């Protein structure tokens, strides 16, 4: 019996997401993955994986053509870290799950491999700066944390144009890796990314996604386990403004016993047509006894005209687990909090700033990289200032 047949037997049915044909029920593990671009049709927006995404803006990254611009990559790393270009198919932790990832796999000239030696404990983060120079470009990054190593890798995406990237992450047995990916492209930039991580026996991965800029950003993060005792903590912070689309898709595939995963993503939205999408899929396979997993998504709507879509999903094939759950909520400001602050002499704009800062603070505190946390606070302050100006202008009309 397939995973889909199991779900149907349990009472689940095909469902509809609006006008048109019903969306057939499909287990997350049964979706197509392939290195061949031809195995993926060009999305039209009616597919389950693309129904929230503005696909018309992504045509250039769906085209099976070489890039028109070279992506500039700069690496700053402590002594002992090896970084070098390698053939794109040297590692195959990642398997493209959609057309854009398959196109990026095919047309990225070389992969950049960043290797942390076994038993190394880095005193400073590795910085990988990826700048899109305009036009259409592709990138491929491999991060390899050797056995029992301790490291932080920060990947910062900036620039203009249209960028398709793939990131492969290998966390060796007993290693601890914190990987921070920051999306802050120009106002008209487009960035589609797939991150695939393989977490070793008794290893820990902290994957942090920070999305602050770009017109359309879509980051798909997938995690698998190479042995028991693996631990994955997936954190995300995003702030979408007028005209921005920010999308985060996660898939945690528990295929080894006694592993953990904890997902926490928080986002704020302000401005007309600001749109965020969060999809959280967790699969606990029959062999993954002793699994402990939870996923959480929270969205704060700051102005009219903004929209947040949030879809958590759990597929469980064994009852022998520690725990599994999910929670999702989208709402506006808490008027009681605003009233409490204003009653103590704090003006409305400052009160709103404090509420939003409090909303993000718990997750920013978990990022564990002071320079990233400070930068994130600064950008959120700038965005809140623009939101306050927009609200004042609207009220004056």
UniProtKB/TrEMBL annotation:
InterPro entries: Fe-S_cluster_assembly_SufBD (IPR055346), SUF_FeS_clus_asmbl_SufBD_core (IPR000825), SUF_FeS_clus_asmbl_SufBD_sf (IPR037284), SUF_FeS_clus_asmbl_SufD (IPR011542). Signal peptide: none annotated. One of its GO terms (biological process) is iron-sulfur cluster assembly. Residues 138-359 form the SUF system FeS cluster assembly SufBD core domain. Residues 1-29 are annotated as: Disordered. Coiled coil: none annotated. PANTHER family: PROTEIN ABCI7, CHLOROPLASTIC. Belongs to the iron-sulfur cluster assembly SufBD family. This is Fe-S cluster assembly protein SufD. It comes from Kribbella caucasensis. The lineage of its organism: Bacteria, Bacillati, Actinomycetota, Actinomycetes, Propionibacteriales.
């Amino acid at each position: 019996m397939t995973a889909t047949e199991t779900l149907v037997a349990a009472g689940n049915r095909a469902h509809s997401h609006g006008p048109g044909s019903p969306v057939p029920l499909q287990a997350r593990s049964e979706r197509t993955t392939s290195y061949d671009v031809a195995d993926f049709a060009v999305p039209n927006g009616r597919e389950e994986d693309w129904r929230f995404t503005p696909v018309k803006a992504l045509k250039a990254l769906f085209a099976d053509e070489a890039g028109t611009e070279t992506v500039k990559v700069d690496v700053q790393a402590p002594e002992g870290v090896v970084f070098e270009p390698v053939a794109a198919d040297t590692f195959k932790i990642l398997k493209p799950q959609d057309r854009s990832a398959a196109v990026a796999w095919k047309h990225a000239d070389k992969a950049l491999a960043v290797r942390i030696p076994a038993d190394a404990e880095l005193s400073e983060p590795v910085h990988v700066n990826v700048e899109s120079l305009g036009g259409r470009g592709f990138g491929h990054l491999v991060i390899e944390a050797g056995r029992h190593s301790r490291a932080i890798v920060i990947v910062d995406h900036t620039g203009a144009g249209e960028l398709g990237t793939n990131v492969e992450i290998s966390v060796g047995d007993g290693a601890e890796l914190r990987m921070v990916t920051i999306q802050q492209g120009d106002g008209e930039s487009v960035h589609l990314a797939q991150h695939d991580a393989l977490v070793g026996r008794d290893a820990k991965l902290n994957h942090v996604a920070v999305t602050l800029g770009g017109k359309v950003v879509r980051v798909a993060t997938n995690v698998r386990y190479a042995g028991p005792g693996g631990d994955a903590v997936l954190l995300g912070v995003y702030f979408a403004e007028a005209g921005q689309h920010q999308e985060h898709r996660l898939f945690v595939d528990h295929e080894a016993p006694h592993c953990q995963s904890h997902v926490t993503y928080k986002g704020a939205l302000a401005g007309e047509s600001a749109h965020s999408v969060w999809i959280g899929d967790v699969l606990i396979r029959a062999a993954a006894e002793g699994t402990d997993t939870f996923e959480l998504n929270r969205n704060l709507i700051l102005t009219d005209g903004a929209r947040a879509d949030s879809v958590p999903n759990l597929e469980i094939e064994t009852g022998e687990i520690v725990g599994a759950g999910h929670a999702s909520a989208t709402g506006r400001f808490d008027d009681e909090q605003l009233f409490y602050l204003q009653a103590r002499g704090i003006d409305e704009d400052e009160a709103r700033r404090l509420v939003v800062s409090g909303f993000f603070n718990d997750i920013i505190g978990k990022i564990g990289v002071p320079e990233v946390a400070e930068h994130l606070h600064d950008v959120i302050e700038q965005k809140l200032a623009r939101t306050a100006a927009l609200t004042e202008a609207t009220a004056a009309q």
